[in-house]
Design a protein that fits this description.
single chain; mainly alpha; 11 helices; 72% helix; elongated; disordered N terminus; Cation efflux protein transmembrane domain-containing protein
C-alpha cells in the first residue's frame, strides 16, 4: 500500500508540473495577488498586458545588447581605420636617436681615417641631430604624461603650467640645434673654401679616401631612408601630425586658458580664451561661499573659434617637425657625399680633395636651408608662449580690478 501510494503521489506531482508548464495563466493567477471579485476577462487582460510588457523588456534588452555589440564593432573598425598600430612619436624619436648616435660614432672615426671634410661635417651634424632627437623625445614624453593632481593645486593651474612647459620644451631643442649647426657649418665651409681657393698638391696618403666616403655615405643614406619610411608609415612626414588624433590626446593648443590665482581666503577662477581683448568679452559673478569669497570671472571670446576650425589641419608639432627636418637634411647630405665620392672614384680628372670640398660646401648649404622650417616654427611657438603669459597677466589684472569694485 505504501509503495502504491508513493507512485500515485509522484504521478500527481508530475501532472501538476506539466499542468503549470502547459497553462502559464494558472501559474500567473497563483503568483499574483489579484482581487477575487475581478472579472475573468479583466484577469485575462491583465495577464496579457503583463506578458506583453515582459516580452517588450526582453526584446529591448536583446536590442540593447545588439546595439552594444554593433558599437564595439564600430569602435574596432574606427581604430583600424585610424591606425592604432602606427608608431608613436616617442617610438620614432627613440629609433632615430639610437640609430643616429650609433652611426655617428662609427662614421666620425672613419671620417678621421678617410680625411674627409664632408664626412666630418656630416658626422658633426648627425651628432647634433642625435642630441636633438633626445631633447625631442623628452619633450614628447612630458607632453604625453598625464597631469598629476596633488589635491591642492587646481587642475586648471596644472593644465596651464603644463602648456607653458610644453612650449618651452618645443623651443629649447631647436634653438640648441640652430646654434650648433651654424657653428659646424661655418667650420666646414671655411676649410672647404680654403681648399678650393688655394689648392695645393697633397701626397696620396693625405688625400681623402673616396672609397670609404662612398661606402659610409651609402650606409648613411640607407639609414636615412629607413628613418624617413618610419615617419611616413606613422603619417608624420614633414613633421605634420594627424591633428585630430593629437587634439584628442593632448587637447587643442588654442583652447581656453584657465589660470587660477589665489590670495589668502579669496580665490578666483579665470577662464580666458586665446585673445582676451575681444569686444565680446563678458564678466560675471557666480557664487559666494561660507568659507570665503569665490569669484568666477568668465572672459569669453568667439573670435578665434571659426579660425581654429578652419586652420586645424595647418597646426604643426614643432618637435616632430624639427626631428623630420634633421632626418631629411641628413638624407640630402648623404646623397651629396655619395655623388661626390662616386664622381671622384670614376673620373681621374677630379681631384679627391676638390670633390670632397665641393661636397662639404653642398652639405653646408643643405644644413643652412634646413634651418628655415625650424626658425619659422620657433617664431610661432615663441609668439604663442608670449601670448599665454600676456593672457594670464591681463586676466589677473582684470580680476584685481573687479575685486576692488
Amino acid at each position: 500500500h505504501i509503495t502504491s501510494y508513493t507512485k500515485h503521489a509522484l504521478v500527481v506531482s508530475d501532472c501538476d508540473k506539466q499542468q503549470k508548464k502547459v497553462d502559464p495563466y494558472v501559474h500567473y493567477l497563483g503568483e499574483t495577488s489579484l482581487p477575487l471579485n475581478m472579472p475573468p476577462n479583466a484577469m485575462k487582460s491583465s495577464y496579457h498586458d503583463e506578458m506583453d510588457g515582459k516580452n517588450a523588456a526582453a526584446t529591448d534588452g536583446i536590442s540593447q545588447m545588439e546595439n552594444c555589440e554593433i558599437h564595439k564593432a564600430d569602435e574596432n573598425n574606427k581604430k583600424e581605420m585610424i591606425g592604432e598600430d602606427v608608431p608613436s612619436n616617442e617610438y620614432l624619436l627613440n629609433v632615430a636617436f639610437i640609430s643616429f648616435l650609433g652611426f655617428t660614432i662609427t662614421q666620425a672615426s672613419v671620417a678621421v681615417v678617410a680625411q674627409s671634410q664632408a664626412m666630418i661635417g656630416d658626422s658633426a651634424a648627425m651628432a647634433v641631430d642625435a642630441m636633438t632627437y633626445l631633447f625631442n623625445m623628452y619633450a614628447e614624453r612630458q607632453k604625453n604624461k598625464p597631469i598629476e593632481d596633488d589635491g591642492v593645486t587646481p587642475r586648471a593651474v596644472l593644465e596651464h603650467q603644463r602648456k607653458i612647459l610644453r612650449l618651452k620644451l618645443e623651443i629649447i631643442p631647436p634653438v640648441i640645434s640652430v646654434f650648433c649647426l651654424l657653428g659646424v657649418t661655418c667650420y666646414v665651409l671655411r676649410d672647404a673654401i680654403s681648399t678650393l681657393t688655394d689648392p695645393e698638391e697633397e701626397a696620396i696618403e693625405d688625400q681623402p679616401n673616396v672609397h670609404l666616403m662612398f661606402f659610409f655615405s651609402a650606409l648613411n643614406l640607407a639609414l636615412d631612408v629607413f628613418n624617413v619610411s618610419c615617419f611616413a608609415r606613422a603619417k608624420k612626414a614633414l613633421g605634420y601630425l594627424v591633428i585630430k588624433k593629437d587634439i584628442e590626446r593632448y587637447g587643442d593648443d588654442k583652447e581656453c586658458i584657465k589660470p587660477i590665482f589665489q590670495t589668502g581666503r579669496k580665490s578666483s577662477i579665470v577662464d580666458a580664451d586665446f585673445e582676451i581683448d575681444s569686444p565680446t568679452a563678458s564678466a560675471s559673478y557666480d557664487s559666494i561661499t561660507d568659507h570665503g569669497y569665490e569669484t568666477h570671472l568668465s572672459i569669453s571670446s568667439d573670435v578665434d573659434d571659426v579660425e581654429d576650425e578652419e586652420n586645424v589641419e595647418d597646426k604643426i608639432n614643432l618637435n616632430m617637425c624639427s626631428a623630420y627636418t634633421h632626418v631629411f637634411a641628413d638624407t640630402l647630405r648623404s646623397i651629396a657625399v655619395v655623388i661626390a665620392a662616386g664622381l671622384a672614384a670614376i673620373f681621374e680628372c677630379i681631384r679627391p680633395e676638390a670633390s670632397d670640398s665641393v661636397a662639404a660646401i653642398v652639405v653646408s648649404f643643405i644644413i643652412l636651408i634646413s634651418l628655415g622650417p625650424l626658425l619659422v616654427g620657433l617664431f610661432v611657438s615663441i609668439r604663442e608662449l608670449r601670448a599665454l603669459y600676456r593672457t594670464a597677466s591681463e586676466a589677473k589684472d582684470r580680476e584685481a580690478e573687479i575685486l576692488i569694485v
